[in-house]
């Protein structure tokens, strides 16, 4: 999963796509998740990190991850979606 | 700065459907390569720019284009005698033709312009857009110019509803039914006359590009923007500069193919599949031109330099992610100023 390299994300979760001018607000979890994806972390690595921070399960993390990625695709925020 | 130019410009109607004049004036006042003394050319005494002495040194009323070229020429001769103009920048679509016709006259008077040619002006016209798109390989939605409301019935099978009903210079409405289409046809006809342009509706997001061509096919400036807040008149009240290579490429293609001379605005729709459709070409700088100045491309300044025969290095960058937000502002005006401009046509 590769996020468009031009996408800018601020610490408070404001995401800006410079090629379309669209912007989005992410909640805290979304911001953390997007940053980890942008850093190139795999689902397995993200699961490990999130299990340390949150009281949740790896199944829920995977489901949320897949939902999140689907939304990123829909908004053309991934390299796959843009190509 | 040693250079000082006296520049006359129109479009001072900074209202809800604003002319570009005030924004162009701000760009000229912020020019780094010359000092600008600005002369406002107005049609109505309540155009807000009339009452902005920080921008305009002097205001003159000029005749409407319908009065004819000779009347305009006489008025501008008078203004030039008083002000010794270096350059005129007309900012209204509806007046451009008269100013283009007078280009050689202005030259004899020692006044420069930097306008598209009449051929460029005509071929990008709304009524000629399909042919324009075909000639230059640019994707444009289907459209047809009609002179009679009865022709709307024949167009339904071709375009389907909703369809866009446009005036030849200004105004555009989205008609969802035949009744609406007829209402808009007559409404626009009353204001702007015939023909009326019927255009296929493209669902999507609105993008605009403003730029400057040197008349030799070179792109001097190009700034794309996404409309963020659109008024009920379809005007951008807020927008953001974007980094979109496809729009820049399209703009460079437009300039190189047409050898466009002067400022312009491309209006585009991006459909759900991500494809851009060019819906209109405005042959002058847009009302949001100050965004271009704000992101590092002072197009009014560059246009002035081209007009004055100076060498201009094309801009190669601009700030991405900068926004403009327009606002309404109440100025307090002395009755004596209104009285002077209303009675003498000068202020």
Key attributes of the depicted protein:
heterodimer; A: 83 residues; alpha+beta; 3-stranded antiparallel sheet; 4 helices; 12% strand; B: 347 residues; Rossmann fold; Dna Ligase, domain 1; D-amino Acid Aminotransferase, Chain A, domain 1; 3 domains; 6-stranded antiparallel sheet
Order of helices and strands of chain A: EEEHHHH
Shape of chain B: globular
Cα distance spanning the termini of chain B: 28 Å
Give the CA-based shape of chain A: globular
Helices of chain A, by number, come to: 4
Helix content of chain B: 25-40%
Strand proportion of chain A: 5-15%
| Tally of individual helices of chain B | 12
Largest contact between chains: A-B, 9 and 16 residues
Q: Which strands sit side by side, in order, in the main sheet of chain A?
A: 1-2-3
In the predicted model, the low-confidence regions of chain B spanning at least 5 consecutive residues are none
Q: Share of helix among residues of chain A?
A: 40-55%
CATH architecture of the largest domain in chain B: 3-Layer(aba) Sandwich
Number of domains of chain B: 3
Named CATH topology of the largest domain in chain B: Rossmann fold
What proportion of the residues of chain B form beta strands (DSSP E)? 15-25%
Tell me about the largest β-sheet of chain A. 3 strands, antiparallel
Q: What is the gyration radius of chain A calculated from CA atoms?
A: 13 Å
